[in-house]
């Protein structure tokens, strides 16, 4: 008979906790949907709103024009570099040929007075001048490219300053938005937590205590876990502060309950003896 009563008691306890768990689960699922829908109550800031669109467009337009000019100069420079290299190679080949020719030439007169020598030297000088002309043009284009690059860097810095202004304004708006959403969610979750604590204290001995206990479990989850993804940077202080207060409150009631129980058991033992 004792065995059957204990079995019934265990089964009853299991059923009660199962009911509490099922109720808690569906309340959690419902609250998750509600918390997700709370986002629709306030509009999330859009970064584009904080951009100085006119200034951005003006800077980008100037940068595009500079890029075209710079790219044109780069192409010219690359073509001149090829021509300069060809002229240098041509001069080098002619110089080597001239040196070999002058060494093998046998003449009584000084090579500087020999007409053929003079003509070939002039031709060599002309080739060298062509190379130098190409190099001069190459250097001129390099200086032009440097000027355009400097202007592009200035515009890039100006664009970065404007973007930094927009980013700071956007971050301030996001912080305000986060705080607003957090407070709205807190207004939803905090009364649930208070109600759950009230049910736990007031109705834990009620015949329908599994239902109240299930709501209490849900309220604890909703505050300490369901609210976590929405906590701003300072939200942890709120959560931990409430946790400390709950620990003190529940600890106070638990200590008093245990003390009353021990005093009652002590009184019963004294009466029995």
What does this structure look like?
- This protein is mainly alpha-helical and 273 residues long.
- The protein has one domain (2-233).
- It contains 5 helices and no strands.
- Helix 1 (2-38) packs across helix 4 (209-226), helix 2 (53-104) packs antiparallel against helix 3 (115-203) and helix 3 packs antiparallel against helix 4 (209-226).
- The two termini are 29 Å apart.
Structure, briefly:
The protein is mainly alpha-helical and 273 residues long.
How far apart the termini lie comes to 29 Å
Instruction: Based on Cα principal axes, name the global outline.
Output: rod-shaped
Question: What Rg is obtained from the alpha carbons, in whole angstroms?
Answer: 44 Å
Helix percent reads over 70%
Structural class call reads mainly alpha
Q: Please tell me the total number of domains.
A: 1
Number of strands: 0
Main β-sheet: number of strands, strand sense, barrel status?
A: none
The total of helices stands at 5
What proportion of the residues form beta strands (DSSP E)?
A: under 5%
**Poorly predicted segments:** none
Write down the overall mean pLDDT.
Answer: 78
Order of helices and strands: HHHHH
């Amino acid at each position: 008979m004792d065995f059957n009563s204990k079995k019934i008691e265990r089964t009853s306890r299991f059923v009660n906790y199962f009911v509490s768990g099922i109720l808690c689960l569906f309340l959690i699922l419902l609250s998750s949907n509600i918390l997700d829908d709370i986002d629709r109550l306030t509009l999330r800031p859009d970064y584009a709103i904080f951009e100085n669109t006119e200034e951005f467009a003006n800077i980008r337009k100037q940068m595009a024009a500079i890029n075209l000019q710079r790219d044109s100069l780069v192409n010219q420079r690359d073509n001149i570099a090829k021509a300069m290299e060809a002229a240098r190679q041509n001069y080098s080949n002619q110089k080597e040929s001239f040196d070999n020719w002058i060494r093998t030439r046998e003449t009584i007169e000084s090579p500087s007075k020999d007409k053929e020598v003079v003509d070939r030297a002039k031709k060599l000088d002309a080739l060298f001048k062509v190379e130098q002309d190409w190099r001069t043009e190459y250097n001129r284009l390099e200086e032009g490219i440097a000027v355009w690059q400097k202007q592009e860097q200035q515009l890039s810095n100006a664009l970065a300053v404007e973007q930094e202004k927009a980013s700071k304004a956007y971050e301030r708006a996001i912080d305000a938005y986060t705080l607003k959403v957090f407070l709205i969610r807190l207004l939803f979750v905090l009364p649930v937590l208070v109600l759950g604590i009230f049910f736990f204290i007031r109705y834990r001995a009620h015949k329908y205590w599994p239902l109240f206990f299930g709501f209490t479990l849900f309220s604890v989850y909703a505050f300490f876990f369901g609210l976590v993804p929405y906590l701003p940077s300072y939200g942890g202080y709120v959560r931990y502060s409430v946790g400390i207060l709950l620990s003190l409150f529940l600890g106070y009631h638990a200590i008093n309950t245990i003390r009353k129980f021990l005093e009652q058991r002590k009184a019963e033992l004294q009466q029995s003896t």
